[in-house]
Amino acid sequence: MKKVLLVGGAGYLGSILVDELLTRGYAVRVLDRLFFGDSGIEANKDRIELIVTDMRDTSEEVFEDVSIVINVGGFSNDPTAEFNPQANFEMNATATRLLAESCIKYGIKRFLFASSCSIYDLGVNPKSGDIVQDETTEVSPKASYALSKFTGERHLLEMTNDKFCPVILRMGTLFGFSPRMRYDLVVNTFVKDAISKGVMTMHYGGEMWRPLVDVHDAARAFISLIEADEKLVKGQIFNLVYKNLRISELALRVQNALAQAGVKAELHADYSYSGVRSYRVSGEKLCNTTGFQPIISIEESVTDMVEKLKDPKYSDYEHPMFYNIKWVKLLDEMNRILTYTGRLFN
Q1: In whole angstroms, what is the distance from residue 239 CA to residue 293 CA?
Q2: Which of 62, 128, 264, 275 has the smallest number of Cβ neighbours within 10 A?
Q3: Distance (Å, rounded) from C-alpha 245 to C-alpha 268?
Q4: CA atoms within 13 A on the CB side of 292
């Protein structure tokens, strides 16, 4: 039985990936600092090994008996990256390099890295809707998050050799239900707002393009890459996308799916927001190389979310826990307070 070290395994994507790995017979060791608690892995706690530590500071025992490392840890969106660019770079770029160095040291050959299609961001301009970018496109990301992911990629590609097989998966914007739920992803935000407010708001009128993929398809894509022939994937970058859609079209599809599920919501366009990202990408390389194809539609995912969000533990829609930047800011404030007060209770 192969053992997988899953860095960030208690997170939004990681908790789904734990399920997929266990279902396929892998032994799973999760490394996570549990910033967002352990709700994502609660159902699997007795089936995994859990190491609670910082991905920037790992020890030898973390890698013992491990055959494969999958790194889905670190900061995972622009607001958190911009809140603390140094921590963002340390986790997304530096820690990725350190983990890879440990893999080489301990003879772990395959290393999968969760990167992001935001590396392709063109912003909203007349040409952005006409360009479909692929893995050969020259990119020069400027935003903290995209730059940190791109730097992590460069580290891995430079380390590729006969004894080390890094594989990079640039994911589109994720959506769908996870036990470590997030409401700060565009489809999930639409669903949450529709249920809680009866209104879905399209920033910048929904003009921007975005590549999208369900979180369960993302997890299965990682499985396809750890099981693929090494010759096909070593040192390769793959885009992962189900569909490229304008946010306006996406909103209409979500609205229709919600209506079928008995949730009615109005659509509002807001043109006051200017800090938008827009990009379209091709996912053909992954399909042509491994045969993997995302299959979960937006409508299927929305229907599933509506049903699962009936669970009361997900109904406090504005709780900071469900928003990466809100939770990170809250933890940072708590840390400053406790520095002066010490522990709240003995």
Answers
A1: 11
A2: 264
A3: 18
A4: 27
C-alpha to C-alpha distances, 307 to 9, 87, 312, nearest whole angstrom: 24, 36, 11
Other residues' Cβ atoms within 10 Å of the Cβ of residue 170 = 26
Which residues pair with residue 223 across a beta bridge?
none
| Residue 73 CA: distances (Å) to CA of 30, 102, 113, 163, 178 | 10, 16, 9, 24, 16
Place of tokens 């700060």: 184
Q: Which residues of 83-106 are buried (b: 16+ CB within 10 A; e: fewer)?
A: bbbebbbbbbbbbbbbbbebbeee
Q: Give the per-residue pLDDT at 80.
A: 87
For residues 9 and 72, give the distance between their C-alpha atoms in angstroms, rounded to a whole number: 7
Q: Quick one: average pLDDT of 46-61? A: 94
Helix/strand/coil for 31: strand
Residues β-bridged to residue 70: 6, 112
> What pLDDT was estimated at residue 345?
73
For residue range 92-136, list pLDDT tens digits in order.
999 999 999 999 999 999 999 999 999 999 877 656 667 999 999
What is the DSSP annotation of 194-263?
HHHHSEEEEEGGG--EEEEEEHHHHHHHHHHHHHS-HHHHTTEEEEE-SEEEEHHHHHHHHHHHHHHTT-
* Alpha-carbon span 291 to 283, nearest angstrom: 11
Question: For residue 127, what pLDDT is reported?
Answer: 62
Are the C-beta atoms of 71 and 114 separated by less than 8 Å? yes
- Residues 56-70, mean pLDDT to the nearest whole number: 95
Distance (Å, whole) CA 291 – CA 238? 12
pLDDT digits (tens, 9 = 90+) for 314-326: 999 999 999 999 9
Domain 3-329 carries which CATH code? 3.40.50.720
